[in-house]
Design brief:
The complex is a heterotrimer of chains A (127), B (164) and C (1018). In chain A, 38% of the residues lie in helices and 19% in strands. Chain A has 127 residues and is of the alpha+beta class. Chain A has a single domain, classed as Glutaredoxin (3-Layer(aba) Sandwich), CATH 3.40.30. Chain B folds into two domains: 71 residues; 77 residues, Glutaredoxin (3-Layer(aba) Sandwich). Chain B contains seven helices and four strands. A four-stranded mixed sheet of chain B has the order 2-1-3-4, covered by helices on one side. In chain B, strand 3 and strand 4 form a beta hairpin. The two termini of chain B are 35 Å apart. In chain C, helix 17 crosses helix 21. Chain C is globular, with a radius of gyration of 35 Å. Chain C starts with 5 loop residues before the first strand and ends in a 10-residue tail after the last helix. In chain C, 52% of the residues are buried. The chains are: A alpha+beta (127), B alpha+beta (164), C alpha/beta (1018). Chains A and C meet through helix 1, helix 2, strand 2, helix 4 and strand 5 of A and helix 1, helix 5, helix 6, helix 9 and helix 11 of C.
Amino acid sequence: MAKLTIDDLKKIKEKVHKEMALRDGDRRVKVTVHMGTCGIASGAKEVMDSLLEEIESAKVNDVIVTTSGCMGLCSREPLVTVEVVNQEPIKYEYVNPNKMRQIFKRHILAGEVQTPFVLAKGAEIVK
Amino acid sequence: MKAEDRELLQEFTPEQVAKLDSIIEKHKGQAGGLIPVLEEAQVCLEYLPLSVQKRIAAGLNLPLSRIYGVVTFYSFFTMTPRGKYTIRVCLGTACYVRGGKELTDALEKQFGIKDGETTADRLFTLESVRCLGACGLGPVVVVNEDVHGRVKPAKIKDVLSQYN
Amino acid sequence: MKIFRSHLLLCGGTGCHASGSPGVKSALLEEIVKRKLADEVKVVETGCNGFCALGPIMVVYPEGVIYISLKPEDMPELVEEHLVKGRVVEKLLYREPGTDKTIPTMQDIPFFAHQELRALKNRGLIDPEKIEEYIARDGYQGMAKALTEMTPEQVVQEILDSGLRGRGGAGFPTGLKWKFAAQSKGDVKYVLCNADEGDPGAFMDRSILEADPHSVLEGMVIAAKAIGSSHGYIYCRAEYPLAINRLNIAITQAKEAGLLGNDILGTGFNFDLEIYQGAGAFVCGEETALMTSIEGKRGMPRPRPPFPAVAGLWQKPSVLNNVETLANVGQIIQRGAKWHAAVGTEKSKGTKVFALTGDVNNVGLVEVPMGTTLGTIVYDIGGGIPNGKKFKAAQLGGPSGGCIPVQHLNASVDYEKVAELGAIMGSGGLIVMNEDKCAVDMARFFMDFCQDESCGKCTPCREGTKRMLDILTDITKGKGKPGDIELLEEMAEVIKNAALCGLGQTAPNPVLSTIRYFRKEYEDHIFEHRCRATVCSAMFKSPCQHTCPIEMDIPSYIALVREGRFEDAYKILLQTNPFPSVCGRVCDHKCQDKCRRANMDEPLAIKFLKRFITDNAPRPKTEPVPVTRKERIAVVGGGPAGLTAARDLALRGYKVTVFEELNKAGGMLYWGIPSYRLPRNILQGEIDDITSLGVEIRLNTRVGRDITFEQLEKDFDYYYLATGAHKSTKMGVPGEDLGNVFGGVEFLRDFNNNEDKWIKGEKSLGKKVAVIGGGNSAIDAARVALRLGAEVTILYRRLRADMPAAEEEIKAAEDEGIKIEYLVAPLKIEGAKGKVQSITCQRMQLGDFDSSGRRRPVPVDGAEFTLNLDAVIAAIGQVPDMSFIDKKIGVEINKWDCYTVNKGYKSRTTNPRYFAGGDAETGPDTVIAAIAAGHQAADDIDAAIREANGEPAYEKPPIEDIYVPLVIDDETTETPQVAMPELHHDARRANFAEVELGFSREDAIKEACRCLRCDASV
């Protein structure tokens, strides 16, 4: 990355906002696996692996996967956020590889939110 | 070969010794370099016996007492080798009466080591601990972070086979 | 081609494979062959159909039935039922999850709703390994502003104005720290970040570094600008590899982007930083020790002054800030001091991050405005205490802090209030402790930690922590001595004043704080050898026995049940308890609350096993005991306390006479507890045993009326007053004196005295009855009213979980059809012709916490309603009736209308010949507490007599030696408690038959086998 100036900070902000926005087609779904130490200790890595395997074997390319830190609620880890374009984010709790596979097949591909595993929808509000 | 080399080579390979020297070289003359040297040396050598401390003292031009003081001050450093996996057998009352002691005996026999010691291949360190609070699962064995419950002496081999 | 009548599509996808489909498949095939169905049905392995979490899964065609979570052992049943008999196996069937379940939003969840995210604003939202995502959420904007638009003085002023205080624990104003360092002269200055988070139970800093590392880097650059520094260190403990890894990535990215290093953002400002890994020494969290450690030495503190702002790292001016402090800085500069100061209290501004752990439902990271109450953090955000246990205290500040107990749940959590309560804000570890935690053991744990981590440089800390630990360890082992508490307090003061650094100065805090709030627990350990939380196991055999007020030998009688030796088990019961068949029915079984088995599945059904023994073994015969002592003893009150004392004294050879005002002995056992819970013959059997020892019971004799105190004092030498609490507390509402308004105990007494009349309808409550209250008396009154044919509503001012009544009683009342209205309080009772017609109630809502840790009910204005009814039973509490006491006897009554026990005694009153106990001394309590009081009084009276006579102390005769085998299962599998068989609730109306039917022999032995035998010693 080249050295930044103050203007560059603003440009990056706009660019990332554009990039992070999901679009129909090439970036339809964003899946965030929350991987702080707490998440990893309760199995987030295995969840991540199973998700990547499923994506590979389903040969889909409109799902992006990213990681993030602890969401605060360590006792419900592993936590996974699924954001489908034009829909509110859905946060899943106590995810394990099998639940992840089911979420992938039934929610991400088939569009059915897997209610029994859901913690909540939406995002935290920062004032 | 110098005497101090001989002492080092009893416990470490020439490659490890060379690596140690390069670590010392990297931090030589750097203020506050001792602790990074010890940290990197321990990652490379797994433990820091006196022979290693002497080498570092000579390399950094510090008194051995200073090295020894730092090594023994911080809990991260160890002067005796530890295994890759630490097996902790619970000897709380509930586990004890359910066969915790037999389990320790079986492990000591299997590995030929005693409580607190490490196997020759540095794979396992054996420890006994006080109650882990998982009494319903007794006897309990903890390998690093994994808790295994209801471990019979006959079952311990199966449990440990997943660690290598 | 073969035609199959059924196809079994077994999923062989990764998920089902992992959860055991191969085993299911082979079991299935084997079963099909065994049943000779191989030509009729075909098993097909299919790909995944997306029900991975419910696997292994199988679809049976042609019906299309879906079976889930299959196990190999299910196969025989599945083949037999479905394939042979054509019946669907319900228990394995997939059910569509309720689609009407609405998904809450994050703001609907109290854990998130009460938080205010500032330091944690990016949590869970950005990828910490991508600098662009941080920048996209206004990252580095504050730094840009500081570098381009502000002078160092303005930066310092902004931070000063914001009121930001150090989040590492001490709460020193950050702006002031920066100001001092900025004013120090020097060409080289350092900015240091303290990420040596070492408190047990604290993980705020780790989480920030892992989730949002750039926010810390941004804060450090701004600090550098403020003090004029060009180099910094982050001192991070080596135990946080993920945090170090993400910090390294962040630093590399920031350097590449020109946000660290030379000429930052083209402004000409230079600042570089590196990570220094701590090597595992708690003391290095102290600022001077941390600096010594970076210098490559043993991390020992040095005396201040000089302060680090003048001479810090390598004797150069330095500032050291905590991770959370720095994570706040960027936003303060960007959004202004006012924005930061807008939340919080007068002196504590902004938010605080807590690591919420321990006995709380939601464990996690919590950011709340300063001044949020402890109750909100524990109950709303934390979701309360698991398994219905009670909150005891919260430890703030780890080993340097103190605890805040239940009576301060309304306390505002800010620097000032927390300090006033004897804790410290600390770095943010907030450990919730439930009633099963021992205050002394907690103090010992933290002292052990500090002693271990003391660097040894100064004597007060090195030697003092060791000595304090020794004393605490002795106390927890039952070897405490009188004076230990005072010695601990004295040493604590010395160490606080004399230790060199923060570690030593704060090390005594947990001890002082637990002594301040739980002194009684220390005294229990030292003088009674009791650890009521059943933690200090050196003092007892088993938690159940230690919890029982009369220390019944529970493990032994359970072991004997397991062996089928019921008669021996009965002998064990009688060793300590004259009323085992009563207690087997109505004891509040505190023993079960501490049963270790509950950690695995459910506690042992100790009460039911006790009842089983008394129901199924012949009662050991009692023989009269000859009177060998000359002193005559009068017991006033024929309840469990009085009768227990009478029995014990009779066994010691005394002549004892019990005076009972009413026409039946038993006290509350007879007059308060209905016969469907405690059949009369059962109670009478145990009382008969006591009279057969030679105890005389004079019924219908009220002392003070039927026999004067003068006469009593003439006829007897010592007196035990165990007169109970038989008067209902008044509600204090208008109309309470109308006809058909009863007190709870008065109603039950009237019913028991005139059972025939009530049952025949000569006395009647009418059709609709309201019972006020939530205790066992309220439930008893309600269930009796129901049996008399009334429609009953219980009105209670709090919630179900707050009811003092036993859970099983509440449930039984509900089963029987009693309606319970929660959060209502009576306002007035109205009637005509002197008889009640209606009650007007006020709806309540829950407010702040009372001293018992329950939320206080407060009226909802305007929410009143009226119920029409025929009778009201007010069972909100009982008090003793002391009107019979003659002042001349010199027995003092306290303001709660209870007997005063003289200081230093357990049952002796202000007149040395009068002793007292039971409900009349403690206020309403349990049966088992009354029995314990009776034992105590007998010991005390006997001891007083022997002392007066100059005789040696009483020696208990050796108890019969009963061999108790130690048989323990090799393996323990999760099995719930055996349920008590009950009379169906339809069969309970209009009769007073016993509801609980008792264990069968099989039930009892099965239940006894669940005992983990934690009493066993090796």
